[in-house]
Amino acid sequence: LRSTDGKGMRERWNPGIDVPAVTGRADSGDIEIDLVELLMEAAALVRDLGIGIAVFIDEMQDLGAADISAICGACHELSQDAAPLIVVGAGLPHLPAVLTASKSYSERLFSYHRIDRLDRESADQALIAPAERESVKYSEEALDALYRKADGYPYFVQAYGKAAWDAAAQSPISAEDVAVASPAAEEELAVGFFGSRYERATPAEREYMRAMADLSGDDGPVATSAVAHELGRKPASLSPARDGLIKKGLIYSAERGTIGFTVPHFGRYLRGVQ
Is the pTM here over 0.85, yes or no? Predict the structure, then answer.
């Protein structure tokens, strides 16, 4: 492509930033070798400065197998050297299984902490604190109603809180405001939260999830054998659908022989999908 002044689009919008590649450390092309060298070099530098480094990785379960292996290998080397660098990963409940499948020593390498739904005090604070900065309050009845709706799930707290804020005409935000706003929040969740996940599933995977929803009542967990019985199929024949859903982050293996939905109320949503 050419711009009107005759320059290529690349030259026009990215002027003068290309530099010749310089060979050195951490450039072998092997991600596992290079990541170890990169992080070890960085750790050595901050150790001399008397500080440390934290690397945060969100949605860690979505990394490729080579990247997961490289991170595990690098963390192992760092721990052996007592290097002042920590890797903090966040992900869905099956992340420990992803790590262990990559490196068997991962179960000893990382410290696992399950982050569950917010308790009532934390959920209330998530709503009250930002509202107070705008001189707005919530009635106790409104907070009761919002917690029942959100069930402590952080994204739901945000969705219902936003809808109630938009619907309220004055402070304090009331239970009536929450009741008026709830359908808008539920529609947003149905399309943007639940719907986007549902659309990622194949027809066979959707059938599997609907059976889970019918059996679990809402979130699970439910026995894989029960799902097979519900569908009138042999458990082995359903393995591709189950494994596909796990890889897509829609369900997780709660414990041996059971599965559950990775997000709350997904079963309720599925029972309403025709």
Answer: no
